[in-house]
Structures are given as structure tokens and as C-alpha cells.
Amino acid sequence: MRGKFIVIEGLDGSGKGTQAALLIKYLASKGRKVFQTAEPTESVTGGLIRDVLSGARQRTSSELAALFMADRVAHNVNPVNGIEKTLEAGIDVICDRYYYSSIAYQAVGEDKQWVVDMNINCPSIRKPDVCIFFDVDPESCRKRLESGRVYLEIFERDIEQVQAIRARYHEAFDLLKDSDNIVVVDAARAPQEVAADVEKIVDKLFE
To answer: Does domain 5-206 match CATH 3.40.50.300?
Structure first.
């Protein structure tokens, strides 16, 4: 039996890391094998992306979107530990960020439709069994980040920009509502309350 491909999305500070850890523990308690991964990956391309996100390098929005695209294709098709290979082995994959992030973060202005099309139409990029979006208002995310981070990445520094990113997430979900299984979860609550909702969502994948 193939594994299930679960993507978790949300603004930085929305609690993705906490919920991923709780979900892995829950799936393991059900006897499932789980592989946790994230984008950008640990590949060379992923390193180039992290340099941009940290502010160490500058790239145009088109360059950054193309780097994410290349990293995502490799993430799917890597013959050793790629998403497809792992799913075929019967292992569930939990991925922190996927093409929804590219649409929310890089699909701006003249690049918008191009970013959407190249991700949605690429045959090497697999659709997840479910995308769970942890929705928290940007101000709350900022407070969480400031209490736990030494520095903020380039997309986290301007609160108005973060608000626009959140809006683009919801626009992407509306655009993809007929093709993708997307569930928005109120993540402004206590972690255990959020985790209980996530467990119900994931349980439906195994019915």
C-alpha cells in the first residue's frame, strides 16, 4: 500500500513545526511509518534558496520561483529518498511547504500566472493527498517569531507583506479547490486543540 502525502502550510510562526511533530507521533501510534521533509530541501538548490531567504544573496522573483521549482521537481523524483520513492515504499510523507507556498510567496504581479502554471502543470510534481493550512493572523505569527528567532527571513520582516502573503494563500486555495484536497485549520488555539483537528483530517485519508 502506498503511503499518504501530507503537506502542511502556513505563515512562519503558525505552528507548523509543532503540529508536524504531534502528527508524526500520532501516525506512529497507529503503526504508520513516517518520513518528514521540507522545502526548500537540503540539496544544493535548496541551499541557494536559503541564501536568498536569509538576505545573504539577492535574486529576482522569477529567479527565486524557478529555483523553488527545480528544487521541488528534484524533491519528487530523487531515486534515493524522493517523495515518490518514499510513498511507493509504503511510507507516509509529511512535507513542510510545497507549491502552495510558491503561489503565496512568489506569485506576485507579472509572475503570478507563470508561477501557478509551472507548478500545477508540471508532470513531475505530485499533488498531495491533503494540504493542511494552519491559519493564524500575521500579528500573532510575528509575536511568536520574535520570541523564538534570532533573525527574521526576508518575507517575515514587513507585516503588510505577510498580510498580503496570507491573502494570496487563500486566493490559491480558492483557485485549486476543485483539484486539491485543502483544509484550513484555525491554528490560533492551543496546540492540542489544533492537533485534534489535524488527526480527524488525516484519519479520513485511511478510511
So the answer is: yes
